[in-house]
Amino acid sequence: MNAVATNATVGTEITRPSEKDLLSGILAEEAFEDIDCSVRQKAIRQDNKAYKAQRPLARGYPVFILLSKYEPISITTAMTEIELLNAFLALIYCHAILWSIGIEHGDISEGNLMFDDVNKKPKLCDFDLSHVRGRDHPSGYSNTGTWAFMAMELLTIDAMNGEVARLYRHDFESFIAVLIWVVFRYRDGKLVSDPPLWLVEWAQLNRYICCAANRKHTFDHIRKGSLAGPTSLSPAMWKVIRGAVTDLQRCINRCEGLAIDIRMMEWAARNRGPDEGEPRTVNKRRKPAPEGHSLAKLKEELKGYDGLVFLDKVLDMWLLSFDGSHGSLFAELLDTHIEDLKTPTGSQS
């Protein structure tokens, strides 16, 4: 493991010498190839008497910060396909467990998914934009993230105005977006010389609506089979990824349809005539909700897509379809630790 130790002062002084004179004394950097207890004990100051004598007016003391060095998630493209898949499954599992206890990461992106090359485990990093569910936001709903990977539903005017609640499926969609991004942009852990131009279109500066439209265009082509997988992947592995995108798109479309039906039924309920019969105006172009689908049932089904049960709806097949996948193990762990998955809500579709 590689690490960086930084020794810096915290606080201010009543009288402050020039930064030029102090810089060599308050900043130091040393790289350790092997970090063990003896190194930590030696590096962390246990007695500040000498420091106090040298700088009696200092209000702060040196702080020792030890940071592990992780590799970018793109390094998984230098591994076997099953190791790449299992790394993403482990990250999805970790994120789901955190979500189940109220910790919403809020920025699933290439830069925040990393890999420990020593213990061969992926890491979910950077919780600077995370949110603890139940605590008030400054205004509206949280809409953090990196545009190239954010859920398409969050790349809308309403969402940017804080009017769209962040749901579990939004972060999950970001995982799939990062997976597609990584396998097309990297080979053997290195950036390919000619990455697809459509990936660049995912990251339109100052044009978030275009980011969403371009990614949907990519996902549609993957689902229809008109976009071939990268040459570095086997047809079997690409089939697994294509299946994940297909199920994700199917569920997104179902959510959109349910939301429209719910709005129409609520609108109809508000606009019924005095006789409580038909609505005052009827949209003849819109098919009515299927018979037996009450407003309550539609809301219950949509709720099933909004929470962690979404995992069952999307991952069921591709978790288990690749030989050597840890999908079944993660599925059992999720069922064990997440209450929502023990008693799923909403109809399974």
TrEMBL record:
Domain Protein kinase: 1-268
Pfam families to which the protein is assigned, alphabetical: Pkinase_fungal
Sample GO molecular function, one term: ATP binding
Coiled-coil residue windows: none
Domain of life from the UniProt record: Eukaryota
Region (Disordered) location: 271-293
Composition bias type Basic and acidic residues, residue spans: 272-281
Protein name: Protein kinase domain-containing protein
Organism: Ephemerocybe angulata
